[in-house]
Amino acid sequence: MRYSALEVIKQGLTGNKGWRPVWRTSAPKPSYDVVIIGGGGHGLATAYYLAKNHGVRNIAVLEKGYIGGGNVGRNTTIVRADYGQKGNSAFYSHSLKLWNGLSAELNYNVMFSPRGLLELCHSDGQMEAYNRRANMILARGDEAEMLDRNGVADYAPYIGMDNERFPIKGALLQRSAGTARHDAVAWGYARGADALGVDILQNCEVKGFDIEGGVVRGVETSRGIIKAAKVAICVAGRSSQVAAMAGMRLPIESHVLQAFVTEGLKPFVNTVINFGVGHFYISQSDKGGLVFGGDLDGYNSYAQRGSLGRVEHVAEAGMSMIPALGKARMLRSWGGIMDMSMDGSPIIDTTHIKGLYFNGGWCYGGFKAIPASGSAYAQLVATGAVPSYASAYKLSRFETGHLINEEGTGAVPGLH
Fold first, then answer.
1. Residue 386 is inside which H or E element, if any?
2. Interval 279-294: pLDDT, tens
3. Mean pLDDT, range 203-221, rounded to an integer
4. What are the beta bridge partners of residue 338?
């Protein structure tokens, strides 16, 4: 079924009885050409692009829970392309371009809203650093501009400009950045993949790998053994656990990252804002809730919940930037399991096991990367090589020292 305004009117006039399920409830087949472990945004996008761009249709996506229950539904929905390092810059630039046409591509409204990203600067050093980054963004052909203090006040008048502890000197503004609806992204890719013949198997947990002579033959799951010529791992915060089943040790740690939303309010935050001192970021959803987050909780965890100490830290940062937040009631909070790599940048690569592929280590960048990650990973699985925009994301860089250390914080995952 193709969605359109005409179809909405037709269904409304006929009692909405003609809508079909967004994707099928499939039973596992004995074997597939490709098995993708992980039914989040990256796994579903990979399946979609494998089927659409490379003609591979005999695919199963295995999800241990339900579609949308992992990190793809547990984030702050920010989409941006403001990276400075060469490897990251090309990748996120390409991803942002894909975001702009994603709703039309999938025939499903992912609610991408290019409302802009404002990255505040609180010192002369930060202003200089962001000026350099803006020039790098412009040099690759993307959009960025620098605002002075008055420009920030005009663009976002609700920001507290008189904070003596964290004075606002200016900001980097990327007007093409914004937000999208996380659930809609998962559902849109699931629907698109299903329409191309992909089997989406929910409540299908991988228990082990079938590996013979250094070649992957399939996976053992909670719903039986499934044979496959190729197996692709993309399970975000569970990367180390799943890879360990195949005898792999990854340069990744798992940390919990909390996010928060307030009660619904009248629109007043017109953009995405990053508080340059306290690593606080905020936007306002289409429902009116203020969606915000901050730093990792600082300890290794596989729990989808965090500590009260981080709640206080994030609230303090928010109040420092927007004093009016003190009048809003926090509605709920949640946690996502972050797969933090040792240099703060992702991995899309083959492994030492023939037919086994790995995608992970996305740190804070997973949601915004979904379209480009899925497209690149699909090309790797189909052809054995990634496109040029993802060529820096090799596992071998941790052996050779060619790291992509975007934040300059070294091999400390909790600081990236």
1. none
2. 899 999 999 999 999 9
3. 98
4. 255
d(CA 184, CA 151): 34
Instruction: Judge contact between 110 and 188, C-beta under 8 A.
Output: yes
Q: What one-character DSSP code corresponds to residue 353? A: S
Considering only CA atoms, which of 236, 232, 165, 252 is closest in space to residue 382?
232
Q: Enter the tokens of residue 318.
A: 């928010």
CA–centroid distance for 53 within its chain = 21
**Domain regions of the chain by residue span:** 28-77+182-251+343-415, 114-177+253-341
- What mean pLDDT comes out for the span 107-119? 96
For the chain, helix, strand, coil in percent to 5 are 35, 25, 40
- 């963004």: which residue's tokens? 137
Q: Where does the pLDDT of residue 346 fall: very low under 50, low under 70, confident under 90, or very high at 90 and above?
A: very high
Tell me the pTM. 0.95
Interval 233-262: pLDDT, tens: 999 999 999 999 999 999 999 999 999 999
Q: Which CATH number fits domain 28-77+182-251+343-415: 1.10.287.1120, 2.40.50.100, 1.10.287.3240, 3.50.50.60?
A: 3.50.50.60
Measure the CA–CA gap between 34 and 250, rounded to whole angstroms.
Answer: 22
Extended strands (E) in 74-141:
78-79, 117-121
Packing angle of the helix pair 366-383, 86-100 (nearest 10 deg): 100
